[in-house]
């Protein structure tokens, strides 16, 4: 068996997965059943945390050149502003939502992957798999109909909502199709009041959201009520204009549609993201309302969570457990939170009934007036507050008095991000001047970065994982805690 991992599906999640594994030197194949990349804009937003994680891949630069930086979201009811969330105060190198069509995201990721010498193999569909304790035997169908048996150490199903991998594993996609229907238009707009900002309009007949994509081009989304299980037809430009006139702040004109689509919302998730040597990531594992724009971001972050763990195992540096089982535990919890959060946002935005709506608007005006609430919302939107406080990978340090706790995202200092480069190493943030730090680095050369980094606060040692989350936080001088942690995960 020459290939360590087979990635199924070249959507944004499969591509991110392939980039991460390839840059860590893992031998992979990535197969995709369609002949061409999507030309649809679908997911528009890359949030700060995703940009931080992509920075580790060396991929963020081209995205910043192509995307549109949006720093505020407004919630309005008619001409009244109910709330305004600003992102420019979030503690990240990327304090904004980067608007970029999913087609472009896939294009840039595929180009980045090619730089590692890996090409997406198109017109190849995974149609079956058999996993054993030693590897996975996949059946791949080529466009001329011939079937190939392919052996890999691991398989990652990034094959979207209708995942064949998930079906082959017999995993249930638990959840429901929501009763409301939605229309979407990617159109040119004129007359938008805050053209570089997101606008969400709450109206008695439903919700309208307007997202800038490029100058003058916008995504318009609106709910159209319950059509009792009948799939919504694609809207016309006139319908998009009607909903803008009815629910928007007024005087917005739509023209030149690029994409018009009607869609249902599904809220579904698998119970576990792993079965032995097979993993699920992205829409294959969780789908939910686009409210909050977190579907693709969550999927890319699934990939970043799994890749370094799988790489350390494939490279023979770490034992499979507890690293690999932590993937599902950590990411399934996040999937659950995203599903609930997006569902809650959708329910609030589509609330029916005049009395309920006026109470909602009043309460929301009060809540959005509180700055701690706004800060929490901005951190949640940009996903910098995602963490793994209950992870089995967290150490058992005697937490220092201040600084990030185990499972939290480590603050990004003015340095190269942890986990960048060509090997998945942990970083030690600790004061110099104690010979035991460099001695530890010498003892675990494959697991630790070659030099100490400045601690987040005085008096502590922080061991940070290759995906930038704190593995261990302990007091100054407790180097044994670090050694014990590394002994627990390394291959003995
Ligand atoms: C209209 C719309 C609007 C959306 N808006 C947003 C948004 O604003 N924000 C957001 O975050 N998300 C949004 N999403 C969701 C977002 O598009 C998905 O979360 C994202 O595409 C998931 O990426 P993925 O790689 O997991 O799956 P996909 O993008 O579905 O990619 C899966 C890939 O696997 C391939 N494949 C499937 N089966 C096989 C097989 N057996 N063999 C080989 N290849 C296979 C498919 O062809 C596909 O290319 C939206 C989606 C839609 C449809």
Could you explain the architecture of this structure?
The protein is α+β, with helices and mostly antiparallel strands and 492 residues long. It folds into three domains: 5-44 and 101-176 and 267-346, FAD/NAD(P)-binding domain; 179-264, Alpha-Beta Plaits (2-Layer Sandwich); 388-492, Glutaredoxin, CATH 3.40.30. 30% of the residues lie in helices and 28% in strands. The protein has helices at 12-23, 48-56, 60-66, 102-114, 164-169, 237-247, 295-314, 323-349, 354-367, 371-381, 436-443, 479-489, and strands at residues 5-8, 28-32, 45-46, 68-70, 72-77, 80-86, 97-99, 121-122, 124-131, 136-142, 147-152, 154-157, 174-190, 198-203, 206-214, 217-226, 253-269, 274-275, 278-280, 286-287, 427-429, 460-464, 470-475. The longest helix is centred in the C-terminal third of the chain and has 27 residues, at 323-349. The two termini are 23 Å apart.
Reported CATH architecture of the largest domain: 3-Layer(bba) Sandwich
Which range best describes the helical content: under 10%, 10-25%, 25-40%, 40-55%, 55-70% or over 70%? 25-40%
Q: Please state the structural category.
A: alpha+beta
Order of strands, widest sheet: 6-5-14-15-16-13-17-20
Q: Total helix count? A: 12
Query: Quick check: average pLDDT?
Result: 93
The CATH fourth-level homologous superfamily of the largest domain:
FAD/NAD(P)-binding domain
Poorly predicted runs of 5 or more residues: none
Query: What is the CATH T-level topology of the largest domain?
Result: FAD/NAD(P)-binding domain
CATH class identity of the largest domain: Alpha Beta
How many domains would you count in the coordinates? 3
Bound molecules: flavin-adenine dinucleotide
Q: What is the number of E strands?
A: 23
| Separation, N- and C-terminal Cα atoms | 23 Å
**What best-fitting shape do the alpha-carbon axes yield?**
globular
Radius of gyration: 23 Å
How can the largest sheet be summarized? 8 strands, mixed
Which percent range describes the beta-strand content?
25-35%
């Amino acid at each position: 068996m020459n290939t360590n991992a087979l990635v199924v599906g070249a959507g944004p999640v499969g591509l991110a997965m392939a980039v991460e594994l390839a840059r860590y030197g893992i031998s992979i194949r990535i197969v995709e059943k369609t002949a061409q990349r999507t030309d649809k804009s679908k997911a528009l937003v890359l949030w700060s945390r995703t940009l931080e994680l992509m920075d580790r891949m060396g991929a963020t630069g081209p995205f910043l050149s192509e995307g549109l930086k949006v720093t505020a979201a407004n919630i309005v009811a008619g001409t009244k502003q109910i709330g305004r969330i600003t992102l420019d105060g979030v503690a990240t190198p990327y304090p904004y939502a980067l608007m970029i069509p999913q087609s472009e995201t896939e294009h840039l990721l595929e180009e980045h992957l090619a730089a590692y010498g890996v090409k997406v193999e198109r017109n190849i569909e995974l149609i079956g798999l058999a996993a054993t304790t030693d590897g996975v035997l996949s059946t791949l169908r080529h466009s001329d109909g011939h079937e190939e048996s392919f052996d890999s150490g691991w398989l990652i199903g990034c094959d979207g909502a209708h995942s064949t991998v998930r079906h082959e594993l017999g995993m249930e996609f638990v959840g429901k199709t929501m009763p409301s229907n939605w229309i979407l238009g990617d159109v040119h707009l004129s007359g938008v009041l805050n053209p570089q900002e997101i606008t969400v309009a709450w109206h008695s007949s439903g919700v309208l959201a307007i997202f800038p994509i490029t100058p003058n081009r916008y995504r318009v989304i609106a709910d159209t009520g319950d059509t009792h299980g009948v799939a919504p037809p694609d809207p016309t430009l006139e319908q998009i204009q009607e909903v803008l006139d009815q629910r928007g702040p007024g005087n917005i004109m739509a023209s030149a549609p690029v994409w018009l689509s009607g869609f249902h919302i599904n809220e579904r998730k698998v119970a576990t993201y792993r079965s032995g040597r097979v993993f699920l990531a992205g829409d294959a594992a969780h789908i939910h309302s686009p409210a909050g724009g977190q579907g693709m971001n969550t999927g890319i972050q699934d990939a970043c969570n799994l890749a370094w763990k799988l790489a350390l195992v494939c490279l023979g540096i770490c034992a499979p457990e507890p690293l690999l089982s932590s993937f599902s535990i950590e990411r399934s919890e996040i999937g659950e939170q995203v599903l609930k959060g997006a569902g809650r946002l959708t329910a609030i935005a589509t609330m029916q009934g005049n009395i309920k709506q006026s109470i909602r608007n009043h309460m929301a005006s009060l809540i959005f007036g509180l700055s701690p609430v706004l800060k929490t919302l901005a951190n949640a939107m940009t996903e910098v507050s995602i963490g793994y406080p209950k992870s089995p990978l967290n150490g058992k340090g005697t937490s220092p008095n201040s600084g990030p706790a185990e499972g939290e995202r480590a603050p990004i200092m003015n340095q190269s991000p942890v986990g960048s480069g060509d090997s998945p190493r942990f970083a030690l943030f600790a004061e110099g001047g104690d010979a035991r730090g460099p001695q530890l680095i010498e003892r675990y050369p494959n697991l630790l970065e070659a030099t100490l980094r400045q601690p987040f606060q005085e008096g502590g040692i922080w061991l940070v994982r290759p995906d930038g989350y704190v593995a261990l936080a302990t007091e100054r001088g407790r180097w044994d805690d670090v050694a014990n942690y590394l002994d627990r995960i390394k291959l003995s």
